[in-house]
Amino acid sequence: MTADARSEMVQVAIVTGASSGIGFGCATKLAEAGMAIVGTGRDEDRLSALEKAIGDHDRVATVAVDLTADEAPQRIVQTALDRWGRVDFLINNAGVGSPKPLHETDDESLDYFLGVMLRAPFRLAREVVVHMKPGSAIINITSTFSVVGGLRGGAYSAAKGGLTSLTRHIACQYGPQGIRCNAVAPGVTVTPMVATRLEDSRFRKINTEMTPYPRLGEVNDIASTVAFLCSEGASFINGQEIVVDGGWTSTKYLSDFALNSDWVQS
Ligand code: NAP
């Protein structure tokens, strides 16, 4: 088989925020499934670590760019087209945490959250969708905070809720062309984004005590779901938001410990 024929066969996934946490996990998982990966982030050292983790230089390219820059979508998509001539999957994952409640959110912070987690995925999806062929898919990483309001969610909840609606629009608009779009909504997942919060034992405890499957999320929980949604087995799943949180969002669960705590007993 010629190199050209091989490059026509390989599926290509763009993963944003691939320099860390969930995005890094998705990129390596999809590479293990045989895909070529275009991983993006701002930190060049961490992008080099991704290239090393994937290990096969024929199947990985990285783009160090601030996703909110005007030229970012074009640069990212062109990288995939120049290397492999196609894009099969877009994983809109990059995000930022530590929001404040509505009344404490200034305009700069509002624009920042909406810019990274709503405007940038919108612009990247717009850039990529015209190159996608039937069988392609876009997956947006949202959050349990796009399903429930989320205490202190503020601009983060607003951005993620918008991303959920964008998911449904893309699913409706491009489904007839064989292009699916779904969202994956993680619960609290152990990554650098929440590392500081997880140092607080009360934060850890309250999240596990209210989760009927009582643990925190792991990167692989999310990466596996993303990989499934990219697979043939998910070819009739379109316009959904899959919540991966052990039941935190859909139940009002309290563990025995919580049920027996003073404030419930009194
Ligand atoms: P993380 O480890 O902090 O990674 C965030 C990624 O986003 C990094 O790769 C970062 O790249 C990239 N990024 C942030 N701002 C960027 C910008 N302006 N331009 C380019 N890249 C940018 O976070 P994570 O926990 O894996 O989060 C991944 C996604 O999951 C986010 O959308 C987050 O909202 C969502 N999520 C996470 C949790 C959780 O508990 N961890 C829960 C619900 C939803 P650089 O640092 O290289 O710039």
TrEMBL record:
PROSITE patterns: ADH_SHORT (PS00061), PROKAR_LIPOPROTEIN (PS51257). It is found in: Secreted, Cell wall. CDD domains: SDR_c (cd05233). InterPro entries: NAD(P)-bd_dom_sf, Sc_DH/Rdtase_CS, SDR, SDR_fam. GO terms for molecular function: 3-oxoacyl-[acyl-carrier-protein] reductase (NADPH) activity. Keywords: Cell wall, Oxidoreductase, Secreted. SUPFAM superfamilies: NAD(P)-binding Rossmann-fold domains (SSF51735). The keyword Secreted applies. It comes from the Bacteria. It catalyses: a (3R)-hydroxyacyl-[ACP] + NADP(+) = a 3-oxoacyl-[ACP] + NADPH + H(+). GO terms for biological process: monocarboxylic acid metabolic process. Belongs to the short-chain dehydrogenases/reductases (SDR) family. This is 3-oxoacyl-[acyl-carrier-protein] reductase MabA. It comes from Mycolicibacterium celeriflavum.
